[in-house]
Structure formats: structure tokens, C-alpha cells
Amino acid sequence: MLADLLSKVTQVVVDPSVMAGYETDFTGRWRGRARLVVRPGSAAEVAEVLRICAAEGVPVVPQGGNTGLVGGGVPMDGEVVVSLRRLSALGPVDKAARQVTAGAGTVLSDLQRHARAAGLDFGVDLTPRDSATIGGMIATNAGGERVLRHGTTKANVVGVEAVLADGSVISRLDGLPKDNTGFDLPFAASEGTLGIITAARLRLVPYLTRRATALLGLPSPEAALAALERLRAVGSLESAEFFLPEGLALVRRHTGLPAPTRQEHAFYVLVECAAAEDPSEELHEALADVDAPETVVAADPSDRHRLWTYREAHAEAIRAEGAARKLDVGVPLPALPAFLADVPRLAGDAVPVLFGHLAEANVHVNLLGGTTDPSTAILARVAGLGGTISAEHGVGRAKAAYLTLTRSTAEIAALRAVKAALDPAGLLNPGVIFP
Amino acid sequence: MLADLLSKVTQVVVDPSVMAGYETDFTGRWRGRARLVVRPGSAAEVAEVLRICAAEGVPVVPQGGNTGLVGGGVPMDGEVVVSLRRLSALGPVDKAARQVTAGAGTVLSDLQRHARAAGLDFGVDLTPRDSATIGGMIATNAGGERVLRHGTTKANVVGVEAVLADGSVISRLDGLPKDNTGFDLPFAASEGTLGIITAARLRLVPYLTRRATALLGLPSPEAALAALERLRAVGSLESAEFFLPEGLALVRRHTGLPAPTRQEHAFYVLVECAAAEDPSEELHEALADVDAPETVVAADPSDRHRLWTYREAHAEAIRAEGAARKLDVGVPLPALPAFLADVPRLAGDAVPVLFGHLAEANVHVNLLGGTTDPSTAILARVAGLGGTISAEHGVGRAKAAYLTLTRSTAEIAALRAVKAALDPAGLLNPGVIFP
Fold first, then answer.
1. Do B291 and B223 fall within a single domain?
2. Roughly how many angstroms between the first and final C-alpha of chain B, as a whole number?
3. CB proximity A43 to B under 8 Å
């Protein structure tokens, strides 16, 4: 019996009440039944699990912090869930190389604390930092709030250790900044379909403790793009986030916070600069050139925290309204105003709540209520504008049917060929990415 | 006949005297016979060429600027050479997104001029900038002199257009900074084995015109590592290169330049800072903390040029001595002194000339003369120190037999599986990377 075989090599969970936490995602929209859950404590245990599952022909679903939004990390029907959370070891920070090795189950905020104690930081930061794990962040190439400065997760990974479908272990944790002995296996954004990431060698950046934060109240997305162009010249710029009045109202209702500005505005942009020395003057100089009806500058850390809450509490505030349909799209920057103008019409009788990352024109579209699903119409519009149907959340099961909107037949065939080469039996995360 | 078929779809070279330039590499050590050379003018022509070659079962060798050093871009025996040099179109610089689209045949210095005219720059720079092409730089994941600041070529690529072995075209030139609709096909460092890159969307960085350059004369590699640790705290640091007295003597003989320092030193480090505002003071402050017996600071641009020549003329000066055996290795930074100390003994009766990129402990080992080939012994030592047998030049044909020294059987099997998935008939650059 499978549970017996697996329990000889790793920790196995069969208690339905414990398994339940692994069977439902963060949004509550994706849930399925796992055959059982394993919690390996090492890459070698992951390898044993995969060898047994391969021999038994049982598909597996890798799972990290279970903060995914596209159904890429929960079982559908009888898979073995491989939870990586126990692989949470953090190696020593190499200050000379500015690197650290982290187990796949390392929670982002633990990594941040560890790196910051050594005067360094991880270049990626995102709202679910207290539950998202490094392995999941690599597997989904997580983006977040500092992409304009440090890139997405893949730009911050030097190498990974991963277990392939046949149980073989690939390890590239030596941290060599230059190593051209063949191409990299493309684990970033592979969403568990090519292998199970067990650890990663990560690039670190200087820990910048001096921050300057401002919220701009603007009349339009066009005004926001003009402001962004000026602000991007600020070398210390790290974040440029946006939200709209509808989302702000939800956040205020959910958090009880007062209005951030004296007047209501059509478009809000939250910017933050970070540097070794106080970047306030640099930010003030740039803001003086920006034509904003209202600008609020954070006076102290608690003020900064409050301004960020208006942006970061969006996901929680939306969740409190019920299960929203979630899209995560990106368009070319100049197309952002046109896209934002189109959404309300495309959304039909659903209420759209939009927020996101301005510099990448990455829009989180949340659709509340509505009698029909406007996803197809909205995603088709994104494709028509030259955008992507998944900017940072990944494809998962939720977006697999839409992949053809923005990736060509030849591209999908090539991705499928790579998938089949590394996982010929299709045991790794079936149904994810590929329709 | 193949030439007839190909000449219907693209430019074909059959004149042996013209073909000769495509059949021998920069070092003169790799030469072979091409069946013929094609010079396509578009991705569509490359696709036609590959469809015809696939139908005829004729292997192809993609070639860019032919500046490779590992025999990865020259024919061996009867392949069709696909020269990408005509694909040299440069798109407009997108200043807001800091991106540009370049044809695979764009020469690096042309890209630099184009970007700099818009106030931006490409993050990768290397000595053969007047002949190396962007497609080749991506296919070999070229490194060079600014990796400590901007990473290797793959970190500066947003997406590529490439033609697969079956003639299908994959295009990811839309420039979206976040796009997680499936993993990327791993064209970087694939050395023409997975597809032929025809264009790329490139990330640009601010063009930094204020530079401060210094040459440090140091007593040992250990002293150089101590200096590097201090200098890395300088935010504007862009390059940290090294060379040794033997190489300096060759360069002086070849160029006629005077000695750069009053006394001879055991180890030379060339550092350069670059910023929007003069970084001299920042560099001076750091140099004051460095225990260097002699430091020469460039007083003006011609002085700067002269200091760089001591480093950059190494390849030419070595070539003037005859065909050297060339290794391009990297070791973990702390292992650099041990490796450098071992090379003379391992080199036997060959004369080693060593130089390279200090921050990545990337050593270019050039072996002049000698009755036996010490490559295996040196590369085995690199592997024993946890290093790489190819830091930035790639594997090509020259290093294929050594791949097993630093990549495991499982890794090589996985790379082979991906190769076979995308090029099942093995038509793309046979003999390259894989032994």
C-alpha cells in the first residue's frame, strides 16, 4: 500500500483533518482530495517519494506555503501532495559573495530576517511574506513590490537543487556567479511541472534601511504614467504601486483606516525609495516635478506602514467580500490606461476591484459577484493589447485554458516537449500550465 | 541539390575563399569544412533554412561574430554554417521601459552606441565588443567586465526570438517585465544546440559617464581578496579585473606601453567605478582603507584607456605568442589563491599566463608551449575546488569531454533530454556541449 511504502522513507499525513489544510488554497476557490500528504525532511526523502510514486504511477502535487492563487499547488483528485515546508534550513550568509542557500520551505520573512542580520536583503518582497516559501516563489517566478529595482524571483536565484520525476537530484548550489557549462534547466516559472525544487542558492542585495515613502493622488492613469517617468530617474526608487478608489474603500471598511488624502482621487500611486543614506531629498526633488493634485509623504515609520497598508490590505479586504474571480494580467506600459478604461465594460455585472504594480503595468483584476464569468473577455482584451494573461501568479490550473491567448502553438508545443522530456509519465503536477 | 534549395530562400555562400572566414575561429585552433554558408536576412529565412536542412538531414552550425573560444561556432565536417550577421537591425530604444530589440547579428559596440545615444547602456561589456554579436552573447551567456554590477548576459535579456530545429519560430520580444505564462525555453548558454536565436529584447541600464579607475599593485591574491571585500562596499563599483606579472610583460612587449607602476608587483587589480556623478571621492575613500603597496589612479580619459589596455590587450598579446591552449575556469572566491598557486605546477613545461575577473574568481588560463596538454590536470583541480570548467566561454567542442568533471550524470542526462526534445534529429550544432 502506498502509505506504507512512503512512511518507510518520510513523514506521511493521512489524518483527514490535518490533510484538509493541504487540500484547499488560500482563496478557498481551489480544493481537491489528496491521496495522502508527505512532508519530506530532505532532498533525499523527496527523491525516495518520487521514485515510489513513479513506480506506483501516482501523480504528485508539490506545495510550498500554499499561497498560490491559480490552483497550482492543491490536489484535484487523489494525487500525493508533497509539502516542502520542512525543508526550511537556512545556510550562513556569504557576505563576500552576497549569497545564501535556503531550503525550498523557507518562509520569505525568515529569509529576510536572516539576510538582514548580516546587512543584506533578498531582492524580492511581496505581501504574503509570512507564508510564501522560497521554493514556491521560484516555481512561480514570484514578482511583488520591488521588481522595478531587483527583477522577479528568477533574477535573484543563482542556482537550484531539484528532484526530477525519476528521483534523480540536480544540484546547482555552488553559487558560482559565472558558470556556462550548459544551459540551466528552466525550473523558474515551471510551477512544479518539471521537478520539485528542494533548495536554492540566492543572490542577496544590500539591506537598505533608509526609506522615503509617498502616496500620490492623481486624476488619471495617464497622469500616473507621467509621474512614473519622472520618478524612474530616481536611482533609489524601489516600488511604484497603484490602487483605485473602489479598492481603497474596501480597504478602509476592512481596516478602519481613515482616508489617506483630503480629497478622493481617480488614481493612487504609492512610491518608495530605499538607500543606504536618506533618499528623502531625492524623492522630494522628483515629486516637485510631478503634477499631482495631492501628495502625502510618510513622516515616520508608522506613517509609512499605514500608507503601505492601503495597498497591501487589498487582498485581505477583497477576500472579506467573498470569493472573487482573480486575474493577474500585464500589458505594455503605454496600454495601461486603455486597459483600465475597458475593464468595467468587460466585467459585465461583476464589480471589478483593480490594483497592482505600476512600473510593470501589472494589474490584479478582482471580480466580485456577477452572474457571468467575464474572464475570457478580459483576458482576450489583454492579449489584444500585447499583454500577458499571467504576469506574476503563474498559470496553474486556473489559467491553463487561456494559455493559447498569448503563447503560440509552436511555443506551447516546445514547452510540452521539454515537459515530456523531463517527466515522460506526466506525474508532476498534472493539469498545471498545460491545458 | 542543397545549395539550389537554399538559394531559393536565402543568401548562400559557396565560394571557398569567402567560406574560409566562416570555417576558422578567432584563435586559429578550430577549423573545419562547411558544406556551405547561408546568410539569412530574417527569422523567416532562418526558418526556411532549418526546414530544408531538416528535410535533407544536414546538420547546421549557427555563427555570430565568430569570436568564440571553444569551437562552438565553426563547422567540423560538412555542416551548413548559418551566419546571423545580417540580422543586425536595432529597434528604437524604449526609454520608459529601458529596453531595446536587437537582431542576433547586432555587434555589441553598435548596440552600445545606439543605447548610449538615448542615455542608456547595455549592462554587459567585453573586450571583443567590436565583433561579438548579441545572438552569440546570449547563446554563450557571455560575461565580461561588468558582471559584478549587472550580471551575465542572461540577466540582461527580457526575451528572445528563436527558430527551433523544425523551423518553428518562438518569439518573446514583447518586453513584458513580468510574464509567468510557463517557463522560459533555456536558450541562454545553449550554444546553438536548442535553437537559433534571431533577435532579443534586451534590458538596458542607465548610461554612466562619470568613471574613476585605479590600478592596484598588490603582493598576493590574498591581498587582492581583502581589497575586493572593501571595494565591493562602493556602490558604484563596476569592474574588478586582475592580471599577473607574466601577462603584463607580454602586453608591454606587444603594445610598447611603459610599466604601469614604479615597482613590479605579484598581483595587479584594475578597478573601475561608474556613476551619474563623479565617483572619484567614493573610490578614493575606499582605496584609503586598502593596504596596497602601490596604487595608480587614472588622471584623465587617456590615462584610463591606458590602464584598461594593460588588461584588455592580454588576449591579443597572447595570440601574438602563438596558439595557446585556453581554459576559462571559475572557482569559489576563497579558493582563488590556492588555485593560482597550483597552476604553475599543474602546467608542466607549458608557460601559464593568467588573468581574469576578480569578483567572480574567473581565471583565463592561457598555456603557451609545452610538450604535453595539462588541461585535464588543471580542470580536475578546478573541479576539486568546487569550481566550473567553463565560467564564461561556454563548453563548445573544446570542453565537451570535460563536462562530467563538474556536472553530474543526472544533470547531463536531463540536459540531453531537453536537447533531444527540441532537436530530436540532433541537427543543431552537433558535438557542442554534449560529449
1. yes
2. 31
3. no
